[in-house]
Design goal:
- With 381 residues, this protein is of the alpha/beta class.
- It has two domains: 289 residues, P-loop containing nucleotide triphosphate hydrolases (Rossmann fold, 3-Layer(aba) Sandwich); 75 residues, no CATH class.
- Helices cover 45% and strands 20% of the residues.
- It has 15 helices and twelve strands.
- The strands form two sheets. Strands 6-7-8-3-9-10-12-11 form an eight-stranded mixed β-sheet, sandwiched between helices. It has a four-stranded antiparallel β-sheet with strand order 2-1-4-5.
- α7 packs across α8 and α7 packs parallel to α9.
- The chain starts with a strand and ends with a helix.
Length: 381
């Protein structure tokens, strides 16, 4: 496995405003890297932010904040950063630091509703001085900011190269396939849209070749999705992604809707395709036993945060965060006698500080989100 970084996520935030007073922080400031040729898995309970992370990376959502880099090129910049650039440019034309003045105005407004008259006078004076001083921004700085803004607009676009190099396998194999289209058209659509084939014959040849790779037959070309089993439909979804010869594939709970025996077949198929093509996977799942089998590194997510990250050995053999320990204790034992005495670790998050914690490095590969006090306490156990 290469140590060259293929995907880099920096301080990714994905917030959804559901009402004037409520905002759901689905992903709240996560950072990680994925190396070429590896399988990096995100695990956690439903609602932890795993699928939202995958959809944000592939640009199904406009990210709220942070940056995403793919093949050493920025492909996404947060909406907050984008608005911040526009705000600075707009305010700089008026000749003053508008952000500072707006902050002072907000504080003055807040103090007017309190009894702190001394602080109100102090901030009113600060506001007056800021407006009168008018911090100048020179012409060169404004032009650089405009260039940054234009570059941000370009980075957030979905271009042809991005569509080819990054693909996604969705969770529900039936819902992700068009029921009115035949297999040849479902799998070959990407080739046609991106101008990678010049004729129907060439498209058919490429579709047949990828069908054979995923364990389906030439006879399946002209059938509809409802004529297949769940496992076969997922193979069609895999074929649709892999026919584009991508560098990076996001498998969003690609096995959770399948029977256990079929899950093993799909996992083996994904591993075989990786060995053959060198593709890199972001594997999103909540089945920790399967994740252990397919992954090189694992990130454990809870409430929009990556609470622990490391190699499979780090996370499975030496878990530190109580949430990781709780997840691992929930894995059923195949031996009935051991299953009967298996003990569950109940996760109590009351005394755990996600927002106040920081990334603590336990080794070169193993990190955990914790305050200094929490880490010391967890390591003692």
């Amino acid at each position: 496995m290469s140590r060259e970084v293929l995907l880099k996520v920096e301080n990714l935030k994905q917030h959804f405003k559901v009402s004037k007073k409520q905002t759901v922080m689905a992903v709240d400031g996560i950072s990680f890297e994925i190396f070429k040729g590896e399988t990096f898995s995100l695990v956690g309970e439903s609602g932890s932010g795993k699928s939202t992370t995958g959809r944000s990376i592939i640009k199904l959502y406009q990210i709220t904040d942070g940056e995403i880099y793919f093949n050493n090129k920025r492909i996404s910049i947060g909406d907050k950063q984008f608005k911040r650039l526009k705000h600075i440019i707009r305010e700089s034309k008026e000749g003053y630091d508008g952000k500072k003045i707006n902050e002072l105005r907000a504080e003055v407004k807040r103090l007017k509703s309190t009894t702190h008259t001394d602080r109100l006078k102090e901030y009113e004076e600060k506001l007056s001085n800021a407006i009168n001083t008018k911090v100048k921004i020179n012409h060169k700085d404004i032009e650089e900011l405009k260039l940054d803004l234009r570059q941000a607009q370009v980075d957030n676009m979905v271009d042809r190269d991005f569509r080819q190099k990054m693909q996604m396998i969705f969770q529900d194999p039936m819902a992700s396939l068009n029921p009115r289209k035949k297999v040849i058209d479902i799998i070959g659509q990407g080739l046609v849209v991106n101008g990678l084939v010049s004729s129907e014959k060439e498209k058919e040849e490429k579709v047949i070749a990828i069908l054979e790779k995923v364990g389906l037959l030439k006879d399946h070309l002209h059938r509809y999705p409802h004529q297949f089993s769940g496992g076969q439909r997922q193979r069609i979804g895999i074929a649709r992604a892999m026919i584009m010869n991508p560098d990076f594939v996001i498998a969003d709970e690609a096995i959770s809707a399948l029977d256990v025996s079929i899950q093993a077949q799909v996992i083996n198929l994904l591993k075989a395709l990786q060995e053959e093509t060198g593709v890199t996977y972001l594997f999103i799942a909540h089945d920790l036993s399967m994740v252990k089998y397919i992954s090189d590194r694992v990130g454990v997510m809870h409430k929009g945060h990556i609470v622990e990250m490391g190699t499979v050995e780090d996370v499975y053999e030496n878990p530190v965060h109580p949430y990781t320990k709780s997840l691992l204790s929930a894995i059923p034992e195949p031996n009935p006698r051991l299953e009967k005495v298996r003990k569950r670790d109940i996760y109590d998050q009351k005394n755990i500080n996600y927002t106040g914690g920081k990334i603590q490095h336990l080794s070169d590969t193993h990190t955990v989100l914790a305050t200094d006090y929490e880490l010391e306490k967890w390591l003692e156990k």
